[in-house]
Amino acid sequence: MEFDRIYFYVEDARESRDWFVNRLGFQAIAGYANSHTRTEIIGSGPVCFVLSSPLTPASPVASWLKFHPPGIADVGFRVKNIELAVARAAVEGAKILEPVGEDQLAGGSFKRAKIAGWGDLSHTLVEGINGNLPLLNSAALSLFAKIDHVVLNVESGDLEKAVDWYQKILGFAPQQNFDIQTDKSALRSRVMVHSEGGVQLPINEPASTNSQIQEFLDANRGAGIQHMALQTNNIVATVNELRSRGLPFLPVPETYYAQLLVNWQQYLPEDWQAIAASQVLADWPEASGEAMLLQIFTQPIFAEPTFFFEIIERRVGFVNGKQVQAGGFGAGNFRALFEAIEREQMKRGSLTIERSNDV
């Protein structure tokens, strides 16, 4: 399994297209409209987003936006056998929104189906016919190599239910657990990974009444996609380019890098100063040795404090003489992100100093 297209529902597809082109360096690929919905397709190398906005109240996008602010409505996956995947989902109780059908694109054809996901999220499943699935704009110059992971936030008490759902319906398996707690708030997280292709889907729930996850759930009016990580091969150069385009990132305090110097001095790379100057988070997941995980997070891209992007680089290191790439997620960066969002919550006045009781 791999990530396929990601479908955003927005208020103005053309305006959102221009934002992605100007701020994230995407390329406009195609645009079209029917009687009720306008759609713009944009791409950055192998990463493809579909942006849709309503033209009339009859649009399904209008119906979705009545309940949620702009954001991701559908996470698409490429599967090896779509009939088998849909049959499995149906047997396990998933709602089939669109049965398997065949579509044509320039350069090839593919099969497609859609199932209901968690909450109001849906998942479009695609399979290339004879193994050929056309990639839009894959040859274009791109800052991004692929989608690394997508993060789902669910209501308090729903974490294990959502983990079980994605395990039964789509074949994900839990890999890592995180319980993050500060003196102000807390969350719980399970990282889900698919055995075929390594697609990663972390799922979070609030562990305090004032948690940033709860703030998202309140603003989003229910469960939904909190952020998406775009993988790059050179995070410092990519972040510098994105900053030059006016993309705002979450700030990192200087004390963060002072602590890294104490804890990880033996692993710091030659470009360490450039990493710190770019305010990129650095971590070394357990047992990864010199393999380094580099991450940075944008401010929310819409008016409400909901969806944001992560830029990530997974560097190669050596463990017991063998070359490995930093996989999974490091607890240090996870906590640093949590604390960075807490600081933004305090700026918005949505986080009190005293930590709420666990829920």
Tell me about this structure:
By secondary structure, the chain is of the alpha+beta class. It folds into two domains: 2-128, 2,3-Dihydroxybiphenyl 1,2-Dioxygenase, domain 1 (Roll), CATH 3.10.180.10; 146-348, 2,3-Dihydroxybiphenyl 1,2-Dioxygenase, domain 1, CATH 3.10.180.10. 27% of the residues lie in helices and 36% in strands. The chain is built from nine helices and 18 strands. The protein has helices at residues 13-24, 60-67, 82-91, 159-170, 212-220, 235-244, 254-264, 272-277, 331-348; strands at 2-9, 27-33, 37-44, 47-54, 71-78, 96-105, 108-116, 122-128, 146-153, 172-181, 186-194, 200-206, 224-231, 281-283, 293-297, 308-314, 316-319, 322-325. The strands form three sheets. It has an eight-stranded mixed beta sheet with strand order 2-3-4-1-5-8-7-6. Strands 10-11-12-9-13-16-15-14 form an eight-stranded mixed beta sheet, with helices on both faces. Strands 17-18 form a two-stranded antiparallel sheet. β6 (96-105) and β7 (108-116) form a beta hairpin. The longest helix is centred in the last third of the chain and has 18 residues, at 331-348. The radius of gyration is 20 Å and the shape is globular. The two termini are 35 Å apart.
